[in-house]
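Appendix B.2, paired examples.
Example (i):
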Amino acid sequence: MMRSPHSYAAVVRRRGGALMVREEEMVDPRVGAKAWPLVRGITTLVEALKLGSRCLRFSAEVYEQDLEAEEKAGGARPKSGGPSTLAALSLSIIALVTADPESPPPTSGKDGGAGKSLFTLLTVLFAIGLFVALPQAFAEGTSRVFKLGLDVRDPRFQVITGAAKLLIVVGYMLAIRRMPEIYRVFQYHGAEHKAIHAYEAGQELVVANARSKTTLHPRCGTTFLVMVAMVSILVFTAIGPLLPQLGLGKLGDNLLFFLMKLPFLPFIAAITFEIQRALARWGKGPLALLLYPGFLVQKITTIEPDDSQLEVALAALRSALVREQGRATAQGDSTFDGFEALNEARPAA
């Protein structure tokens, strides 16, 4: 999936080799209140989760359609036809780590009914439990096991929580990378970065130019997630002493502090967005070191793609750019016989 200021394009390859393009006009996020510092970080995060999830569902639906067509034609249906429960619950997280935080998606569009909204809520709760509640529980457990006697207001408690959060992020990414469906998503994630690097280098959008590029990119959603963990250490260390002494005991203090953290999550996302945006643009020399933890985790969430996957990423980027330049106005879905056919229909400017 690729996003330009006024449109987006998602491309999937059908089992017959054809490329199916889904494209849609979008509201320019660079104007109005959504472009204000801090506000843009929150809106970008929320909307990136929505569009990323929609594109992943689009890909899964086309995959299911092709399987059903093969089945009706007399072919055997593969055993791994649908996503696993863990892969399904990870939808929002995968949408985030494979997103470009500087490229927010549209505010309009069909997101599905109440069932999909409930499922999205479940995936968000799963993410909060994994990356907010579990690290705090780990810190409390570490304090008890090693008899440290740390209070939730103690800065050392927040350092342990932040370290646990980073370990969980890395462990979680390593675990889901082993699932075949997620492995392919991470290959396409690498292909997207290579295509963007070719574009930013001013090169023609062809496989030969994208193949040699790195799969790492400073604006990647994976780097955003890692930086959120680091920024949260500072923010929660600052608000920890503000937790009132109500005599609730360890369990009560932990529950109260967990609830106290939730309203700060959008604030942390907004700050992190601005920091990552500044580092991606001006982070040279020693400042570039701040991006390295994110690059290390990107080595998990991006995998070297093959040429057919590069074609899909390049097709999405080319489609988004052609629409941005006003040379195409199609809405909805269209299908091309392959990458060459798409290039002929949508030549570079």
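Example (ii):
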Amino acid sequence: MNNNYYQSWNHWFSQIMKQIQDQQQTIDRLTQQIEHLQTQQHPKTVIEKIEYHFDQLKIETLEGTLQIGLTPNGTEGDILEDLYTPESQPQEAAPYLDELMNDAVPQYIDNYVRENGLQLSEKHREHMIADINKQLPERFTFHQNQNPDLDPTAIVQKLHQEVRHSVAQYFTSKKGEDFV
């Protein structure tokens, strides 16, 4: 019985030693693989120059917020003075923008306010009109440069859509705020 006891211990001890040797071999093999991978030269990608051709980019969706009534440097007092100076508008755009600036922009604001049951002070309304009108000549020139063959009346139609959309976006972004 005592001999059998030692044989089983000896057998168990041999199995443990075999497992330890197998694990050591696995560790050695993995260590060699890691060292081999670390010494391999990975191909480097070098990008020397990237050129973007913004005129060839196609923008399908343009999202954002039109900051009506806000100026980046807070020069609200200068807005009205700059609005209708002849130098601020391209000569070609002025005749086409008169109806939009004088009639359509106020009408779009009034319609949106009425349809959505909003209260809008006259000062806020005038500020919105001035800010939108200030941007229209630049937008006209932008569309004219984008599509030189486009008829000015077609550009004005695009501006009508932009103004309606911008007015709606403005009020939507300010939802819950007091406009009085």
